[in-house]
Structures are given as structure tokens and as C-alpha cells.
Design brief:
The protein is mainly β and 84 residues long. The chain contains one helix and six strands. The strands form two sheets. It has a four-stranded mixed sheet with strand order 1-6-5-4, with no helix packed on it. A two-stranded antiparallel sheet has the order 2-3.
Length: 84
């Protein structure tokens, strides 16, 4: 069953601001999912953006079937599936 307690943000819209999505947490070596994505001002501010919406560090969202965590450094970290 899909988690209904988290925002469903859909797929990233290239026309809107979205923070980088990485495969590992900040305590590990970060690997950008899209190597062409460069960190932006979100890295300095401690927030993440998804399709223009701002999220605080520690917040989770569902992007399609994927569970993402807004981590320190202003990046999204893949945390598994949005299905329980």
C-alpha cells in the first residue's frame, strides 16, 4: 500500500527548481544520480526543492514510487520505496 502520510511530488519538472537527487546520505560519499546536476544555493541554505516547492532537512516526499529524504546539504537522498 502506498504511503498516504507523505507528499506525492511526482516526477521532477525540468522547468522548476529541484535539488540534486543522490544515492547516498551525507555521511557517505555522495554520488549524484545525474552527474550533470550541480549543487545550487539550496546546499548553502539547508533546504531542498522539488518542482519549486521548498522542504526542510529531515522531510520525506514520494517522487513516483521512490521515497526521498531532504538531507543536510540541500540534497535529496534515495531511501527506498513509497510502498509499505
Amino acid at each position: 500500500m502506498r504511503r498516504s502520510d507523505l507528499p506525492n511530488v511526482g516526477a521532477p519538472d525540468p522547468e522548476l527548481q529541484t535539488s540534486p537527487i543522490v544515492a547516498h546520505s551525507a555521511g557517505e560519499e555522495l554520488q549524484a544520480v545525474d552527474p550533470g546536476v550541480q549543487p545550487d544555493e539550496a546546499v548553502e541554505s539547508g533546504v531542498c526543492y522539488f518542482n519549486g516547492e521548498e522542504y526542510r532537512v529531515g522531510e520525506y516526499v514520494c517522487a513516483g514510487d521512490e521515497l526521498l529524504l531532504c538531507d543536510k546539504g540541500g540534497v535529496w537522498v534515495r531511501k527506498g520505496s513509497c510502498y509499505q
